[in-house]
Amino acid sequence: MANISLSEAEKTFILHGVEEDFRCDGRSRRDYRPMELETDLVSNASGSARLRLANTDVLVGIKTEIDKPNYLTPDQGKIEFFVDCSANAAPEFEGRGGEELALELADTLTNAYESPKAFDLKTLCILPGQQCWKLFVDILILECGGNLFDAVSLAAKAALFNTKIPRVTAALMDAGEAELLISDDPYDCTRIQIENLPILVTVCKIGDSCVVDPSAEEEECSIASAVVGVSKRNGKNYISNVHTIGEGSLHKDTMHNCILLGLSAAENLNNELVKALKLEESRVGSKHRNTIGFLK
Amino acid sequence: MTTNVNIRLAIDRVNMGLLAQNQTRAPRLYTPGEVVTGQFGFMKGHGTYVEGEDIKASVAGVMEQVNKLISIKPLKSRYVGEIGDVVVARITEVQQRRWKVDTNSRLDSVLLLSSVNLPGGELRRRGVEDEQMMRKYLQEGDLISAEVQNIFDEGTLSLYTRSLKYGKLSQGVLVKVFPSLVKRRKTHFHNLTCGASIILGNNGFIWISPTVNNEADGGDGGYAQNLNEVIPRADREVIARLRNCILALAHCKMMLYDTSILYAYEESMKYEVHELLQQEAIFDVAFLTQHRLRLQEE
Amino acid sequence: MSNFELLSEQGLRLDGRRPHELRCIKCKLGVFEQPDGSAYLEQGNTKVLAAVYGPHQAQSNKLDLNEVVINCQYSMATFSTAERKNRPRGDRKSQEITLYLRQALRAAIKTELYPRSQIDVYVEVLQADGANYAVALNAATLALVDAGICLKEYVVACTASLSKNNIPLTDVSHVEEMSGGPTLTVASLPTSNKIAFMEMSQRFHLDNLPAVMEQALNGCREIQAIMEKEVRKHLMQMGSAGDWSNIAK
After folding, report:
1. CATH, range C25-238
2. Do C143 and C50 contact (CB within 8 A), yes or no?
3. ipTM of the shown complex
């Protein structure tokens, strides 16, 4: 990630702060930094969202395409995650510099969305064995201020909430090939159920304690973190995946604690996200509007 | 204990531009390519160039005139060092007989082995052992406070720490802002009454630490770092609050100096420290600070 | 030539503009905190973010003892185009644009002031709807101004095309680009009337070149005026918040 070097003394200060449950910016170990959210700001994507978490800035655009289902799963659609770390965020990302991190982010999201209980690919099926929707979740990282995994997953979920899949009004069979009629009305579309969609919570081990939403400096002090994917179902939180990052290792008890912390943090995080999305929709309506984006 | 999460909507973004409503004192602004004055009788300084008979601006900013020297100062840029400036800087490389240092300048700065006080004696010769020990004194990542001693021809800054007030920094927090936000004052070291010390580096690096007791710290040449010392909670709260206040002022493009920081600190007391990360609180603190600064000036 | 008419009988273009009209331009400086300079610029539906890092010490293998090294990267978000792009950069078109951006910026930056240093200019296209190079360059210029880097003057780019009945059109949109008409891209230093970069595709008669070029250069001047206004507004906001107390009185 962004090249930050810290002196031993700075690290010590951060570490003691975490132990004291009073971090450098005054947060407790369980607090997130303030976020800002906007959806529907990329006009040539089917859905989009921008999430800013302190200095971390993520823009997600979702494209829909019609594809053929896989032979083994004829009744399922497809979803593909792609992450690009823009050089705007850090000069080290220039060229292929951000590729490793981008792949790790995309893979972790893919794993989190893998379970049919987290995201049901059957909803993307149009004609079993013939045609299905393929969603490209394209994630662009514009600025890095720590905690990319959480930010990326929240932005992806928000963009999926915003995604409008055109309604298929009829299908004609022509010599074994399906031909679809798609509604011309841009407002005649289906939406994705986002209640179960997973989010990622990075639990970062600093010293002997764990924190959520690490800043870039805090990440520098940590040798190991666990990214916990959490998906909600019937009001209960389930783990959809766990991914460890960093060069160090976690004791199995610590890992257990990390997962518990991740699960409990995800509860609030998810509620707030859904609340914000619904609030935005009720205030601006689903029709075309002026975006704030990078202006103002 | 629950997790605090706060997601606001972009449509509710606080417009920090409201702090800039009073534009009565605005000087004449220049932008790149604009003619500043005719060439005759004037000399071109930083941020200007001569074309034909005119001196033109090459940056967007305001004019500064010293006798016949005309320069245009951008409101934001990398640090342009001047001899005597106080800087906070980070060691990036240990080389032969010198350290490479990041001061947020156009080029890497240097700290020569001959420009530091070595432990154990002020004015002794620097031998081979000292060269081998360099990493023991200062290693990659370490922060120092220093003064700009010299500027080499190509623009590299040469620093020195041969004074007891300079040297390696121990526990604390570094905040980075644009260099032009740090106001030039007689002193850049402050022991604030609220219970912490700050060093306002001219290069935009600001160091906040527990109050330094100068007398007790004198003898070791400034290399000792007590990493076992745990900063008490009360000091931590002051430091964190100062950090958030400085960032709030910087976010609103307000100037940073002892008075503005102290006012912001006082105005922030109605908020919890972590609440100062939120836009409304940032705006509120900046607004009240601006108001007090204006009253004080009148 | 074009098999599609770019101008209606009423003399309006596909998106309702008159021939000499630019698309709506909105911009802002200083959109990010980490880079030394940044800017956002949208021209119609083409939306671009630019970030500038530097001037900073050049890597020793690139270092130039006499002038600054300018390093550019043009990249397009995979969702920026109507048809999804497979990768954001590295394709031929992006590399070409990267090169041309560097060429035009070199003409404006006072390179001799920063020996041994490097300036990184990164441009990210969020939405592409024609004149991508021009919008990218304009955003990069604003980001350089924001970073306080010395420029001779703004370097501004604009495109122009020619309708079937030889009427020049300013600021070509994607549909107009695709309909097969010629596209002329000019990057200019408007005050001194210099051309820093020019590229033309398709063909038209030499007699029409002056008119098309003048149209593009006119566009540059208009865009410069808009950028200039935004720069002044930005300076005013930055200085007024601190009551200009950083200025020696």
Report:
1. 3.30.230.70
2. yes
3. 0.94
